[in-house]
Amino acid sequence: MAPSNLNPNLSADPTSSQALDVDAYVEGIRGGDRVVLSRAITLIESTRERDRVAAREVMDRLLPDAGQSIRVGVTGVPGVGKSTFIEKLGMSLVDDGRKLAVLAIDPSSERTRGSILGDKTRMGRLSQHESVYIRPSPTSGSLGGVARKTRETILLCEAAGYDTIFVETVGVGQSEITVHSMVDVFLLLGIAGAGDELQGIKRGVVEMADIIAINKADGDNVRRAERAQRQYENALQLFPPTDSGWEPAVLTCSAETGDGIEDVWTAVTEYVDHTQSTGFFGEQRRRQARYWMRQTIEQRLMDDFFSSSDVQSKLREIEDSVLDGTMSSFAAADELLDAYREGR
Ligand code: GDP
Q: Which band of pLDDT confidence, cut at 50, 70 and 90, is reported for residue 201?
């Protein structure tokens, strides 16, 4: 796995704290230098004001190079086979000449080590491949903050020439909605026989899925997987038509043997062709871009508010008043907002 380096000085030490200048980030990423890409992602993950300014400049310069990829969200409960699936499908995609980036949003990664490790032990062969870039979930901050960084990371990866982006998340609710808001196609992995047909996955997640693949359809499990496939198909019939006009596909596959994996990718490309021909693809991306603008404003305002010394000096006392019932939540919020505005 030899990253192509434009400038040997750029890749001397990926953990070096010595900052690169904006030109070096931009040129390195355009040249597909993975070490520079990693450092740029670290830059956008940084909360330091100086890094934020540099990160914004890097993003602005690279935006015209971004966008040329298929962005695929992959979700499913832990153990369903997401990493095995991405490894299997990913190897066939890179064999076909695609360049693949695998990112993750794991809301549990801050508290625990996370359900998605996204590291080299999980996708052993894939992570060795020179056409693959794997980045684990950012660990700090709220889901909103983590998501914004992942959204920017998608753009950086595209500017670096990755034409297929997988964003993996665990089936635990809010994180799917977040991933759904940054991908073109949303793939739900399920397994047969986990009790109820929806397997603890919220109905809303099934409703978001463009493609459902029942994994582990191998050995004795094939018949059960096919039964689950029919259950999902029946369940989907009760759902209202999708905005994209696409009828969600339900397939079976085995990430272990590779059976059906190609068919899942065919469904992805059919979905992309369909939505590109109707214009939904571009429309969805534009809506997502506006959504992320608003999310970023919200996030920045919140950060600015809570880090303001005028707010900090009063926050504890006012919160105590809310907790002991001497002040309403609304009056408290108004007082803090006034303090914030006056301090500006
Ligand atoms: P994740 O938590 O969703 O990423 O799931 P993993 O990819 O780590 O897989 C969980 C377990 O299921 C591992 O032991 C895999 O070897 C196994 N597994 C994954 N896909 C398949 C499959 O298609 N068939 C079978 N039999 N086992 C699988």
A: low
Please give the average per-residue pLDDT across 322-330, as a whole number: 96
* Ligand 1 lined by 81 (C-beta under 6 Å): yes
Asked if residues 228 and 191 have their Cβ atoms less than 8 Å apart, the reply is yes
In single-letter form, the type of residue at position 155 comes to L
Q: Whole-prediction pTM value?
A: 0.86
CATH architecture of the region 290-342:
Orthogonal Bundle (1.10)
For the chain, give the percent of residues with pLDDT over 90: 60
Give the mean model confidence (pLDDT) for residues 282-290. Answer: 95
Closest by CA position to 38, among listed 160, 141, 120, 192: 160
Q: Is the model's pLDDT at 2 over the cut of 80?
A: no
**How far does the centroid of ligand 1 lie from the alpha carbon of residue 242, in Å?**
30
Confidence of residue 106 (pLDDT cuts 50, 70, 90): confident
State how far the Cα of 53 lies from the Cα of 298, in Å rounded to an integer. 18
Where do you find CATH 3.40.50.300 in the chain?
62-278
Superfamily of domain 62-278: P-loop containing nucleotide triphosphate hydrolases (3.40.50.300)
Report CA dihedral (47, 48, 54, 56) to the nearest 10 degrees: 30
Question: For ligand 1, is residue 148 a contact (CB within 6 Å)?
Answer: no
Where in the chain are all domains bearing CATH 1.10.287?
290-342
Please indicate whether residue 215, judged by its CB atom, sits closer than 6 Å to ligand 1: yes
> Cβ neighbours of residue 63 under 8 Å, at least 6 residues apart?
155, 159
Q: Span 305-318, mean pLDDT?
A: 93
